[in-house]
């Protein structure tokens, strides 16, 4: 179809790192594709951003009955988005042993040729498809890796680095090096005045489907794809090692959503305006100084204490909003509330005197009076029972869906799994995961 670019969405992952955000209950995990983010699921943001750059046909690689059905309930066949969406066949799930193997098997199954953009569902991107295509064509590449420049300190122990030649082709990979190793391999980065960044893999690939399908027929590749074949650790090094041209092209920004800490950092960047396309897609802000977005229904909603609307309270200064706040539909915000760098979902109650900073509150959650929540995630339907004389305090913590926290609870660096009832506990070690009632009994 001429210059058409297809979209291939790798949506089979289970979202283990993002627990409890991906959990509906202790034993029921949602697809990573459905992680709620700034009023939409991640996969919805992905489809819309690609659609706006001209991609009209998408192929979703899912895994397992729940994953297939969950994603299809959200995306359908693309009617709501004005695109066409196809899904991998469930009977072929056994071949999806790694992201690379899943891509190769499904390229063949769908009989795809031409150009496709392969995308993960645990990130949000700011990218220019035209720039990727230009780099891809200029290098005559089989694969062009979208890259993000990062400093050695950002890379150390967390990201893989690509070695690139002056013509933009990838010559090798260094997997999650230590800071010392970064400086040894790239000595120019250790100079005192150096502010150089190095290209890291963003997990997005522009591919020549036909050439990849030919490579997949190599006997060695067939054996690898029957075991475990991931894009970054296996497929790309194999292609480079066999002399197939793999290019690297920079994109503007990548926001990781794979862990709670990364999710909240990306949320702050999005609400702070660092993702231009998402900022435009959110619509006109309610205020530009400071910047924030509040749905009209929430501005009209009266709280149960004073009987005044949120718009009135903002006008008189009894509620302070912003910077970088989004409030969804039909939220009730009490007097004395202060919100900064936070996302408040639909139908949320934030009661009198609560203060939230760098925090996400899921749909229909309740945050009680005088709660103090910082750098945390509170899931849908969760209830934070806080009181003026016995407030709840959460720092760097994650509260799962429909969990219940009693007054006086104080958590720092703690994860609470869905539907647990947590009594007033304090002093839990950072890194604690409350996954069951037995875990709770251990600490009280």
What's the arrangement of secondary structure elements?
Elements (H helix, E strand, L loop, with lengths): L4 E6 L12 E3 L2 E2 L6 E2 L2 E2 H10 L5 E5 L3 H11 L8 E4 L11 H12 L4 E6 L2 E4 L2 H11 L3 E8 L1 H4 L5 E4 L5 E5 L4 H7 L12 E11 H8 L2 H7 L5 H11 L4 E5 L2 E4 L3 H12 L4 H6 L5 E2 L2 E4 L1 H5 L9 H7 L3 E2 L3 E3 L4 E2 L4 E3 L1 E3 L4 E2 L4 E3 L2 E2 L4 E2 L4 E3 L2 E2 L4 E2 L8 E3 L2 E2 L4 E2 L4 E3 L2 E2 L4 E2 L10 E2 L2 H7 L1
Helix pairs in contact: 3-7
Mean pLDDT: 93
Which stretches are low in confidence, meaning pLDDT under 50 for 5 or more residues running? none
Largest sheet: 9 strands, mixed
Number of strands: 36
Number of helices: 14
What Rg, in angstroms, do the CA atoms define?
A: 23 Å
The global form is globular
Strand-residue proportion: 25-35%
Major sheet strand order: 16-17-19-22-25-28-31-34-36
- Helical content (DSSP H or I, runs of 4+): 25-40%
Structural class: alpha/beta
Termini separation comes to 64 Å
What tags apply to this protein structure?
nine-stranded mixed β-sheet, 14 helices, 444 residues, 36 strands, 27% helix, seven-stranded mixed β-sheet
């Amino acid at each position: 179809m001429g210059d058409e670019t297809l979209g291939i969405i790798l949506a089979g992952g289970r979202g283990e790192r993002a627990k409890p955000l991906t959990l509906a209950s202790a034993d029921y995990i949602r697809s990573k594709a459905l992680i709620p983010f700034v009023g939409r699921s991640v996969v919805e943001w992905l489809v819309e951003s690609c659609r706006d750059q001209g991609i009209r046909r998408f192929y979703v690689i899912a895994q397992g009955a729940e994953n297939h059905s969950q994603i299809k309930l959200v995306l359908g066949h693309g009617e709501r988005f004005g695109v066409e969406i196809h899904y991998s066949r469930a009977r072929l799930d056994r071949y999806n042993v790694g992201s690379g193997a899943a891509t190769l098997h499904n390229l063949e199954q769908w009989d795809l040729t031409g150009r496709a953009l392969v995308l993960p569902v645990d990130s949000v991107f700011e990218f220019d498809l035209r720039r990727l295509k230009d780099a891809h064509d200029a290098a005559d590449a089989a694969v062009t890796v979208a890259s993000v420049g990062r400093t050695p300190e950002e890379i150390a122990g967390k990201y893989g680095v690509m070695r690139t030649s002056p013509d933009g082709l990838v010559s090798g990979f260094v997997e999650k090096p230590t800071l010392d190793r970064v400086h040894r391999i790239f000595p120019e980065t250790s100079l005192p005045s150096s502010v150089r960044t190095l290209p890291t893999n963003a997990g997005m690939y522009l591919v020549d489907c036909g050439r990849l399908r030919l490579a997949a027929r190599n006997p060695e590749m067939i054996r690898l794809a029957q075991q475990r074949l991931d894009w970054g650790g296996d497929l790309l090094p194999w292609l480079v090692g066999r002399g197939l041209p793999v290019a690297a092209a920079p994109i503007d920004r990548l926001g990781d959503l794979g862990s709670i800490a990364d999710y909240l950092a990306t949320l702050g960047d999005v609400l702070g305006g660092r993702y231009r396309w998402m900022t435009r897609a959110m619509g006109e802000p309610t205020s530009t100084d400071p910047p924030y977005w509040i749905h009209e229904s929430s501005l009209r909603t009266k709280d149960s204490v004073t009987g005044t609307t949120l718009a009135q309270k903002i006008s008189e200064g009894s509620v302070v909003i912003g910077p970088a706040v989004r409030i969804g539909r039909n939220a009730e915000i009490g007097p004395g509330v202060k919100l900064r760098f936070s996302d408040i979902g639909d139908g949320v109650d934030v009661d009198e005197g609560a203060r939230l900073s760098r925090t996400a509150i899921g749909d229909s959650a309740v945050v009680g009076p005088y709660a103090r929540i910082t750098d945390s995630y509170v899931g849908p339907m969760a209830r934070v029972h806080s009181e003026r004389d016995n407030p709840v305090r959460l720092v760097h913590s994650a509260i799962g869906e429909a969990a219940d926290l009693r007054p006086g609870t104080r958590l720092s660096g703690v994860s609470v799994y869905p539907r647990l009832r947590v009594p007033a506990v304090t002093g839990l070690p950072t890194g604690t995961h409350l996954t069951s009632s037995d875990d709770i009994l251990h600490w009280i």
